[in-house]
Amino acid sequence: MSERKKSFYFKAPFLIIVVFPxxxxxxYYVVLAADRYVSSSEVVIRSGGNESSRLPGLAVLLGAGxxxxxxxxxxxxxxxxxxxxxxxxxxxxSWKEHFTRNKSxxxxxxxxxxxxxxxxxxxxxxxxxxxxxVTGLLRVEVQSYDPEYSQLVLTTILAExxxxxxxxxxxxxxxxxxxxxxxLEKSLISYNAATDNLISxxxxxxTFDAQGNAKGRAEVIYEIEATVIRDRATxxxxxxxxxxxxxxxxxxxxxxxxxxxxxQAERSKLLVDAGANRLNVLAADYRNLTIQAAIAEETYKVxxxxxxxxxxxxxxxxxxxxxxxxxSLSELAAFPRKIYNLITIFIVLLIIFGIYxxxxxxxxxxxx
Length: 368
Known about the structure:
By secondary structure, the protein is α+β, with helices and mostly antiparallel strands. The chain has helices at about 5-30, 55-60, 70-80, 85-95, 95-100, 115-125, 145-205, 210-240, 245-270, 280-315, 340-365; strands at about 35-45, 125-130, 140-145, 320-325. Among the domains are: about 1-35 and about 335-368, no CATH class; about 180-315. A four-stranded antiparallel β-sheet has the order 2-3-1-4. A hairpin with a 6-residue loop joins strand 2 and strand 3.
C-alpha cells in the first residue's frame, strides 16, 4: 500500500469517527444547548412522638433515633415525581409552558402538543430526589431555564409535600382513633344490652340473685336431710327399747313423715321436673346473664384503655416535613457542563477510534 493510500486510510476514519462527531458536539454545546439552572434543598420527615423529644435538636433534624422510616421518605420521593405533583405545578406555575418556550435545544425540547406521557417523562428529568441512607435526608433538585423559576418550583414542591405528609399522617391517626372509638361504642352498646337483660330477668323472676337463692335453698335441703337422718337414728334406738305403739315412736314417726314431706317440697322447688320456674333453671339463666354482663363490662374497660392508647400512638404517628436547607437560588448554570462533556466526548471518540484501528490492523494482518 502506498504512503498516500495509508495516509488516507488513517485520516478518513479519524475524520468520520472523531473529528465530525466532536465538531457536532461542539456546535451543540456552544450554539444549541440551553443553560439549565438548579435549585436544591434538603428535607427530612420527623415524628411528632415523644421519642423525638429525648434526642438533641440536631439529631432529630438529621433523622437520628429512627424518628421516621426509610419507607416514608421513599414515599415522599415518589410523590415528588408523580403525575399529581406535575398537575399541581401546571395549575399553579404553568410548568409545561415554561419548557415549551425553549426551541433551540433539541435534547431538552418539549413541544406544545406533546402527549401527557412525554411531558411526565420530561418532568422526571427536570426533578430529582435522592435519599442519603446515612443521614436520612432527602435531597430534592429542580432544573429549569431560569434560576428564579427553579427556586419557585422547588418552593411549591416542598409546600405541597408538607401538605402531603401532614395529610397522610393525620389520616392514619384519624383512622386509628376512629377504629378505637368505634370498638368502644360497640362494647358500650353490648354492655348496656347485657345489663338491661340482667335487670329484666331480675324484675321478671322477682329475684335479685337467683344463684344465691338456689344456693340457700340447697343449704336448707341439706339441713332437712340431716334432720331426717337424726330422727331416723333416734327412731331406730326407740324401736330397740320401746314398744311399737309407744307415744315416743308414734311422735318421731310423725315428725319424720312431716320432715320428709318438707324435704320433697323443697327439692321440687330446687330441681327441675317441668316448667322453667325451678330454682336450678333460674340459677343457670342468671349465671349466664351475669357472665355475659361481666364479659361486656371487661370488654368495655379494655376498649376505654384502647382509645387512650390509640390517642398516644396516633400522636407518635403524626409526621411533619422539616426543611433542613431552604431552596437555593443559583447564579450560574449547573447544566450543561460544556467543558467536561466535550472532554469526555473527545476521549470516548478517541477510544472508539483506537478500537477501530486495532480491528482494522488485525484484519489487514490476516489479509497479508
